[in-house]
Amino acid sequence: MAYFAALLTRTADGWEASDIDLDDVVDLDGLADLMRSSSAEDQISLLFVEQEDMWFGVVRVDGEDDARVFVSDAHAAIRSAYGEVLLGQLLAATDTGVEELLVLAEPDAEELDEAEPEDEEAAEALTGPTGDADLLNDLGMTPEQLLELSAREGLLPTEALVEIAERAGCAEALESVR
After folding, report:
1. 172 closest CA partner among 32, 28, 162
2. What's the predicted TM-score (pTM) here?
3. What pLDDT score was predicted for residue 3?
4. I want to staple 129 with a disulfide (CB 3.0 to 4.6 A). Which of 17, 28, 150, 166 is the partner?
């Protein structure tokens, strides 16, 4: 599956952008480490990811703080290795495997009857936008705006990321790696 990923780092001189290869990243901690290694200490780093016009994700790392993640459509992202990386902590918290979630996301009547209540809750948690919708609040996008952007009919993930970048003041940097 084709994907686009850009790392944006805020410096004293503004935002800098670079391409980032996610192929060797296996979990969110590894991704956060990769983002930190690409920026100076205590800087804000944002990772914008979109895959095949199906979903987008934003990861934020502030210095040594834990990574914060927002995904526009968990249902679509769970079908992707990159989405699995971004949603890894949520998946670990549900105690449900990826294969089970994929089945539960589109169950047939027989599978739905056999589903355990906690599996149904896990599948429900991975429907639509998920994650930390507050991660861009101090950069000009409220949680409500981010959720609305994720739900806007006909808006492509690429267009959503451009709108996010415009509000955060890093649109030029994003465009430089497109």
Report:
1. 162
2. 0.82
3. 86
4. 150
